[in-house]
Amino acid sequence: MSQFRALAGILRSRGWQCLLLPGGGGGGGPACRSVLAGSARSCFAGPSAPTAVNSSSSTSSSSSYVEEMYFAWLEDPTNVHESWDTFFRHAQAGAVSDGAVEGPPSALLQGRAGHQTPSMARKVVEDHLAVHTLIRAYQIRGHHVAQLDPLGILEADLDCFVPSDLITTIDKLGFYGLDESDLDKTFRLPFTTFIGGGDTTLPLREIIRRLETSYCGHVGVEFMFINSVEQCQWIRGKFEPPGAMHFTSAEKRTLLARLVRSTRFEDFLARKWSSEKRFGLEGCEVLIPALKMIIDSSSAAGIDSIIMGMPHRGRLNVLANVIRKELNQIFCQFDPKLEAADEGSGDVKYHLGMYHERINRETDKTLTLSLMANPSHLEAVDPVVQGKAKAEQFYRGDSQGKKVMSILIHGDAAFAGQGVVYETFHLSELPSYTTHGTIHVVVNNQIGFTTDPRVARSSPYPTDVARVVNAPIFHVNADDPEAVMHVCRVAAEWRSTFNKDVVIDLVSYRRFGHNEMDEPMFTQPLMYKQIRRQEDVLKKYSDKLISEGVVTLQEFEEEVAKYDKICEEAYTSSKDEKISHIRHWLDSPWPDFFTAEGEPKSMSCPPTGLEEGVLQHIGLTASSVPLEGFNLHPGVSRILRGRSELVKARQMDWALGEYMAFGSLLQEGVHVRLSGQDVERGTFSHRHHVLHDQEVDRRFCVPMNHLWSDQAPYTVCNSSLSEYGVLGFELGFAMASPNALVLWEAQFGDFHNTAQCIIDQFISPGQAKWVRNNGIVLLLPHGMEGMGPEHSSARPERFLQMSKDDPDRFPLIVFTPKSLLRLPDARSSFDELSKGTRFKRLIPNEGPASENPQQVKRVIFCTGKVYYELARERKVLNLEGEVALIRLEQISPFPFDLVRSEVERYSNAELVWCQEEHKNMGYYDYVRPRFLTVVANQKPIWYVGRDPAAAPATGNKATHLNELRRFMDTAFNLGVFQGRKF
Question: What positions does the domain Transketolase-like pyrimidine-binding occupy (predicted)?
Answer without folding.
Answer: 652-823
